[in-house]
Amino acid sequence: MVILSACDNDNVGPGIPNVPVSEQISVNSLQYPMLRQDGGYAYIQAGYRGIIVIRQTANTYYAFERACPYDPAASCGIVTVDQSNLFLTHSCCGSQFNFQGNVTAGPAVYGLLQYKTSLANNILYITN
């Protein structure tokens, strides 16, 4: 019985390594043109496998880890915005997430790891 549970492939937690995150970006920068509209997004090189920043409204931004909580160590992909621009997806396991980071289709059972955001004078601070 112990051998069977040791080989069980069910994910019992996100398992995403805790890496320090302390980023700041200008939401008006030409580098991030899509962050100028609600529903816009940008990818930044930070976190464990990258961060996706999503503009909910002019004053509300979300920042999520791009490692899929189903298999954070998967080398075959990272979480991206689907071509429809309606949800986030991980191409390897097929998990889908809404723009608030919640699971909408499995196999993932945990939502995306969310980083803290705060906005001051068009600078978005992203931390953990």
From TrEMBL:
Domain spans labelled Rieske: 31-126
Highest taxon of the lineage: Bacteria
Listed PROSITE patterns: RIESKE (PS51296)
Keywords on record: 2Fe-2S, Iron, Iron-sulfur, Metal-binding
InterPro entries: Rieske_2Fe-2S, Rieske_2Fe-2S_sf
Protein name per UniProt: Rieske domain-containing protein
Highest classification ranks of the organism: Bacteria, Pseudomonadati, Bacteroidota, Cytophagia, Cytophagales
